[in-house]
Amino acid sequence: MSLMITDECINCDVCEPECPNNAISPGEEIYVIDPKLCTECVGHFDEPQCQQVCPVDCIPLDPEREESREQLMEKYERITAVES
């Protein structure tokens, strides 16, 4: 699954720089996560970095975007191949 940011977000700006895939950006009211870029940090870290730094715990799994670890790794490989 990709992650999502809920409306509990306080726009503290700590999650955006932690995302290795640049999937987090400012939205109209709160930060948003691009599901096409979110790999839950698979390929980079053992745990999602945005969840680790979020002071209000507002970054859960997006139940509408289920992905297996293998699918997340494939997405990571596509993203990093484009960056190379």
From TrEMBL:
One Pfam match: Fer4_7
Keyword Nucleotide-binding: no
Entry keywords, A to Z: 4Fe-4S, Iron, Iron-sulfur, Metal-binding
4Fe-4S ferredoxin-type domain segment(s): 1-29, 31-64
Domain of life: Bacteria
NCBIfam families per the UniProt record, alphabetical: di_4Fe-4S_YfhL
Protein name: 4Fe-4S ferredoxin
Lineage of producing organism: Bacteria, Pseudomonadati, Pseudomonadota, Gammaproteobacteria, Oceanospirillales
